[in-house]
Amino acid sequence: MNDTLPRVGLLPSGPRDAITDVPGVTVGHCTLAEGAIQTGVTVIRPHAGDLYHDRVPAAAAVLNGFGKSIGLMQLDELGVLETPVALTNTFGVPAVAAAQIRAALAVNPGIGRELPTVNPLVFECNDGHLNDMARMVVAEAHYRQAHDSADVAVAEGAVGAGRGMSCFGVKGGIGTASRQVEAGGRAVTVGTLVLANFGRPSQLRVGGRAIGPILAERLEAAPAVAKPEKGSIILIAATDAPLDARQLRRLALRAGAGLARTGSVFGHGSGDIALAFSTAYTLPQDPGAPMPAIAMLHESHLDPLFEAVADGIEQAILHALWRAETVTGRNGHTRQALTEVLPGILSDPAALPSRGSP
């Protein structure tokens, strides 16, 4: 890209500047890109083992609940992940949930019989502008492909579940980032990943600067005639800090701070959902297995993690915008890459509005 990607905040990144800087975490994509089909599946694996048997603590925060995710109710009640986290389009949720259940059954055939049921966790955004969702092409094989390809190297932009997503009127998709902090005398990593599909062009802010009016003018989408917000974003945070589910919900909630910095107002028709999980320990499914004796991070040491997740989410959204490519899909609909719509302007401070400008 000709335009320099802005760096958010002062905290250092991990070596990959990705959610996979948190030890054990991997990410995989399956991308479907042919004509009117522009969609896919993205899978986040907290560890390489059997998540049904060795669950990780987790919690979610619903900033605006216009969404069709599955698995949030039990997650809220029990505070654990039993499957990898899956992202896809709205109509792909049932197939991906079925794939998660079958994957868990393949390893634990007693599930639903002598063992408890499994709670699949699937998040979604509506990619219907570019993708013909009504054809419902996402299948179990696509989940398996994304799951089996999970690695520490994370592709960003118009890949996986992000293939058909739009953000601020341009191409959105997958973005990831990480920040490293010291908390309670220990080194801690916070990794973030977003599925960015939100925002009106006029709202966009980059590094505190109001880019939206320029972008709206270029896209001929003036604020006065802009359509209502109908997008969504899924915000994922992972950390190796020892946190319980209650603390993780507090961490998830701070993802909203990073989202707001980019210009989002959590619009009426937007599904804005944040999830946070910790890889510091696992919780056994087997009631006969001992529960871990873990010293949780003290509440007074959470502020560095809150800063890290806010910075990381903002950075991940910028990564999704900068690293997306122009995509043409259903009925010839096109979403241009941000760097093609505003070439040169994004990296030229003299061309940008001052901070706080309308």
From TrEMBL:
Gene3D superfamilies: L-amino peptidase D-ALA esterase/amidase (3.60.70.12). GO terms for molecular function: aminopeptidase activity. It comes from the Bacteria. InterPro entries: ArgJ-like_dom_sf (IPR016117), Peptidase_S58_DmpA (IPR005321). CDD domains: DmpA (cd02253). Pfam families: Peptidase_S58 (PF03576). PANTHER family: BLR5678 PROTEIN, D-AMINOPEPTIDASE. Belongs to the peptidase S58 family. This is S58 family peptidase.
